Amino acid sequence: xxxxxxxxxxSAPANLPTPATAxxxxxxxxxxxFVLKRTADTTVxxxxxxxxIASGQDLSVYAIGGxxxxxxxxxxxxxxxxxxxxxxxxxxxxxxSPTSGPLDFFVTAAGADLSTATPVASGLAYQGASAYFVVVxxxxxxxxxxxxxxxxxxxxAVVVTTAxxxxxxATVRTVVTxxxxxxxxxxxxxxxxxxx
Length: 196
Fold this sequence. Notes:
Structural class: mainly beta
């Protein structure tokens, strides 16, 4: 695990340890690349992540991989940051953990029984993103189990979970799963504040 400097033709954040996020930044339309460089030696390029952006478009560029000297690659999602009402939180799931296999995701109250819960995203594979869904503002725990886990076995099969997290109205959030910093399991999960 190492930190990188992130550069593009506009100003960009520097010194991003894994996992870390940066806020949206304006970028000129067209074909662009993020260049990741080692923080300790900025002459070393770790990866170049190409993407194409259209006018008025919001994208998330994920730098994934790199454990045990493996290659770092990019994955791009097109983001819909349309705000809901004050009685709505828009959420989606991005599965960036190559070692977790396809997952079923649940957004519930803390301690809720997963055997009776309905997944918000089912069978979400590596480099997959769910459709946006709406939850009522409140405090939730987001958990994932291997895809297709029988309902009666879900509570004991959780592979990744968040702490109880408040989701406010009129906001957009992306929940991201990622492999452990050294690769493999246990997976990690974190929440990006896309808008609001």
